[in-house]
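Here comes an entry:

___
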Amino acid sequence: MEIKGRNIAGHDDADAQYQLYFDCRDRGENVECIKWLRKAARNGLPDAEYEMGFVYEDGNLVRRSFRKAVEWYRKAAEQGHATAERILGKLSATATKGKHS
C-alpha cells in the first residue's frame, strides 16, 4: 500500500501505518484499517495504542473487549498519552463499581 508516494507495506513506519488506518476507515475498509492500526500500535505509537483501546471499548470495528481496551489504554498511558490516562482512570473506577465484567 502507498501513502504520500511511499510504499510502506511491511515497514515499521508507525506514523504512516496510523495514517493508513484512517484512510482505510474513511473508505469503509474495516478489515484493512484494523490491520494498519494494529501494526502502528504494536510499533509503539501512543496515539495508535489509544485508538486500539477505543476500538476494543467501542466494539464497532472489532469484537468488544473491556480487558483488551484496558490493556491498550494502559500502554498508551504509560507513554504519557493524557486522554488514555484519563479514560483508564474512569474505566478503573467503573470496574471497581462492578459495571464491567
